User: Fold this.
Amino acid sequence: MSSHPEGTKKLLVADLWKMKAESKKISMITAYSYPQGLIVDEAGIDIILVGDSLGMVELGYEDTVPVTMEEMVMHTKAVMRAVKRAHVVGDLPFMSYNISTEQAVTNAGIIYKEGGADSVKLEGGQEMADKAEAIHRAGIPIFGHIGLTPQTAAMLGGFKVQGKSTDAAKKAIDDALALQDAGAFALILEAIPQQLAQIITEKLSIPTIGIGGGVYCDGQVLVLHDMLGLFKRFTPKFVKVYGDMYTQQLNAVKEFIDDVHEERFPAGEHSFNMKEDAVNELKKELGD
Ligand code: KIV
Assistant:
C-alpha cells in the first residue's frame, strides 16, 4: 500500500522493461488533470495514461472519436505539472495519426514536446506499424494498443471482446509482434481472452498492460473514473470499482447546499473579523 519506496526518481522506459524482466507487475492508470496527477503519482502508480477516454469521462462526449489534439495537449500539460515519478503516456486522438506517417510524427511530436509527455500512444495493429515505426525513428517512445481499440470500435462491431476465434487470435498475435518490431516499447491489450493475452505476453519482450486482458499481462491499467466509481454511464465487466466517489461528491455538495440554506455555513471559523473599535468608528462615520 501507499507511496512507492523508490521515492521521486522518474520512471524510464528501461525501468519498465526491467520490471517485466524481473516479473514485477506494472500498475497504470489514467489521469487528466493536475489534482488527479498529484493523487495517482503520490499513490505510487508506475505509468499514467492521459488517455483520450478524457473525452467521455471528463468532457462528456459520447465516445473518444471527437477528442482533439488541443484537448490532449492541454490535459497532458496539466498532468505533467503534477507528476514527479510516474512515466506519463499521452494519447494520440483519432485522426491525428491515421492519415500518414508525416501526420503521425508531427502530432506525436506535439504531445511529446508541447504536452511534455514521456511517450505517446496510438491504437491499432499491423495497419499502424508504419506510423509507430516513424514515431520511434523520430526519437519518441511509442506505446501500442491492440484488441478492442475504442477509436475504431465501430469497425469492430462495437465495444466487444476481440480475438476470440482462432483466426482473430492469430491476427492479434501478429499485430502485437508487428508493433514490437516497429519499436513500440509497451503494449496495451484491451478486452481480449486471458489465454490469448498470456500467449502474447510470453511472445513479446516488451511489457503488455491489460485492460480486460486477464492476469497474465505484465501490468494492468484502469480508467481512473471507472475504478473510483465516478463515471456512471456504464461500467465494463473488466473494471474493479474501488469506491463510489460520485455519490460521495454528490452528498458533499448536497450538504453544502443545505448548510447555506439553513445558515450553518459559513460558521465563525470561516469568517473574518474587524476589531470592535473599528466597527464602532465605521458605524459612527456612516451615521448608523
Ligand atoms: O484512453 C484510454 O483511457 C485508454 C485506456 C482504455 C487504456 O486507451
